[in-house]
Amino acid sequence: MARMHLFEFEDLKWFPTSIRNYGTDFLQFITNKFDFYKGVIPILEEGIKEAGNNQIIDLASGGGGGWKSISKHLKDKQPHLKIKLTDYYPNLGALKRMQEFDSEIFDYETESVSALDVPEHLKGLRTQFLSFHHFKKEDARQILQNAVDCDSPIAIFEGQVRDFPHLLKNFFSPISVLIATPFITPFSFGRLFFTYILPIVPLFVWWDGIVSVLRTYSVKEMEGLVGELKGNERFEWKIGKHKEKGITVPYLLAYPKKA
Q1: pLDDT score at 153
Q2: pLDDT, tens only, 50-105
Q3: Is the pTM of this model over 0.90?
Q4: Does residue 4 belong to any structural domain of this protein?
Q5: Is residue 1 part of a domain?
Q6: Checking DSSP bridges between strand 106-108 and strand 82-85, what pairing results, if any?
Q7: Which residue in 136, 203, 215, 219 has the most C-beta neighbors within 10 A?
Q8: 225 CB contacts (<8 Å, ≥6 apart)?
Q9: Three-state SS string across 82-93, please?
Q10: How far is CA 64 from CA 19, 24, 88, 98, in A?
Q11: CA atoms within 13 A on the CB side of 222
Q12: Residue 31 belongs to what domain range?
């Protein structure tokens, strides 16, 4: 299946912030409820070790993604871990709730942060969960190039692969939205209205989910991006797919080689 970079509503500047936030809140609920990234914790721990400062800079955080469950797995082995959540369109309400969930670990940037050009003061292991597919090839390459140029380790994890089974699975995502919405906190009349009365949220999640599958980079395509980077020989690169309990997570882990 060829990669197609169709539009996602979440990426459009004119798309209403509240509707976008309802979508990212849903993704956060699902990824934490099913502990989606439990299987890649060892990969993430390797990246933290190579970063050497117990600091994670999460890019394109959305509503906080799966970090509630991920942080619980990391906390025992990384007692001094700090996680800074950032986004180009920061969902400030959700990010504040993440900080309230565990203020010892979580903090967030209130200003827009681009994954293509991360501010110098944000140092640590850069991470991206379920977001790398949002970027066209030239921008995806720039994300990696910026990490190499800054000698910053980076770990990227997706939530699907580009194949027909995952495409079919996303056709049924509106049902998941309808079932999950009453359990998503904080309670919001707007969330209920735009889910059950005027079902924009289920349709938006349905479209963006299908397009996410079509946009997802394969392992070979990620290897191709790395091959085009200047200075890529200075980094260790680990690219693959982790499969566990029916969940497939494509990943890329990179960090500077030791002298």
Answers
A1: 97
A2: 998 899 999 999 889 999 999 999 988 888 899 999 999 999 999 999 999 999 99
A3: yes
A4: no
A5: no
A6: parallel
A7: 215
A8: 137, 140, 141, 144, 217
A9: EEEECCCCCCHH
A10: 16, 8, 13, 7
A11: 25
A12: 9-256
